[in-house]
Amino acid sequence: MELKKHIVTNMKKGSLLALFFCIVGFSTPAYAQSVQQQIDSLSSGEILELEPGLYSENLLIKEPIKINGNKGVKFTGKIEIKANDVEISDIQFLGEQGIVAKKVKNIKITQNSFQTKRFPIYFDGVENSEIAEVDIIGKSGHYSEKSHGISLYNSKGIHIKNSTITQTQDGIYLENSRQVTIEKNTITYGRYGTHIMYGSDMKLLQNNYSHHITGVMSMMANNVDIEENTIKHQNTLNSSGITLYQTSKVNVVHNIIRENSIAVQLQQADTVDMSSNIFASNLLVFKNIKPKDVLVTNNQLYGNVLVASSGSQGITLRANVYDDYEGEDFDEDGYGDSVYIATSTFGKWVLKNEYYQYFIGSTATGLLEKMDNKISEPNALMDAQPIVREGQPWQVSFSGKHLSIGVALLIVLVLSWRKLK
Predict the structure, then answer these.
(1) Are 309 and 287 in contact (CB under 8 A)?
(2) Beta partners for 179?
(3) Who has the most CB within 10 Å: 107, 113, 260, 410?
(4) Contact present, 187 and 167 (Cβ < 8 Å)
(5) Which helix (H) or strand (E) holds 30?
């Protein structure tokens, strides 16, 4: 009997242990799997919702899926995309690299933030994709030690919008890419805000660029539209708001370009239309190095030290507003009766020594400007039709209503003075 009881007891213990392991095994939560395992288990079009936490895996996506993070989802690994129709949103990337996509289509990267050591977003051979509402903060240090914020190589049909990029080498770098729209982004503190190399069919719309060596750099590209941007505070030595190097068919329209060392630098640029822009408080507005077919028309220039640093070859000024134009409009056609000379001796001095700018408005500089207007260089850049607008400081206008009120007040004062006498 004693032996039988012992056997029964052991059998009971075995049953209990088996039941325990069954319960533990079946109650293990799904998120205990690695993220890669969860991704591999998804079918095309399915969504993976990540729980808040810190993830250190490097992930590979080979199916068209969506990954949604939530507040508190942080990655120290990178995500590599090798499938079309992938969406990634709401993840904070903190590792060596962020998102890499190569030779895929219809990718959507939205509402992610990046503080990676290098290459937050890297596209190569990507088509018809969107990057929106991302926040990229580069590492501290000199820009030569950093990577670009968003890198596009050999890509087509990319839309980058509503994003903030700061402290990178180039905020957005594009090479051999086309049909790219960059819209409503704020890009600050880098080498170039947007850098285009060998690209075509680019649109830069309503962006804010500030504190770069160059706000917009376009090199050996064509069909570039730069519209409604604010480009300011590229004001270190030889900095520029826009530089067009061997770039053709460019429209620079409705931008505010202010407080730059050079507003626009044209280096062998061809077929450029610059119209309806505001150029304000720049040291030099146009630096021209062998441009061709450049038309500058209907712009407003205020508070700039010097308009142009070269002669008239390749660039045409027509019907712009200049705050230092001293001509008159006697025939009232809206244009000044004398030409505006865009180059000046004093301006050239300022370019050589920035401290000369503190003498603006002095008697000596005024005399130099008058001499320039009388005796100009044969190749001086001129605007034969400067616009004269009401409200400019040099224009006198009369209003019958205001004149009547002034005369009435004068009569009242004279009568009052006589009574007091």
Answers:
(1) yes
(2) none
(3) 260
(4) no
(5) none
- Up-side HSE of residue 222: CA atoms within 13 Å toward CB? 4
CA 321/CA 299 separation, integer angstroms: 6
Can you read off the two tokens belonging to residue 8?
Answer: 């029964």
Alpha-carbon span 373 to 377, nearest angstrom: 10
Give kind and range of the element (H or E) at residue 379.
Answer: none
Rounded to whole angstroms, the Cα distance separating 66 from 341 reads 60
- Tens of pLDDT along the chain (421 residues) come to 333 333 333 444 444 444 444 444 443 333 458 999 999 999 999 999 999 999 999 999 999 999 999 889 999 999 999 999 999 999 999 999 999 999 999 999 999 999 999 999 999 999 999 999 999 999 888 888 899 999 999 999 999 999 999 999 999 999 999 999 999 999 999 999 999 999 999 999 999 999 999 999 999 999 999 999 999 999 988 899 999 999 999 999 999 999 999 999 999 999 999 999 999 999 899 988 899 999 999 999 999 988 987 666 789 999 999 998 888 888 889 899 888 888 754 454 444 455 555 555 555 545 545 545 444 454 568 888 999 975 444 333 344 544 455 555 556 555 655 565 5
Sign of the CA dihedral running 127, 89, 185, 58: negative
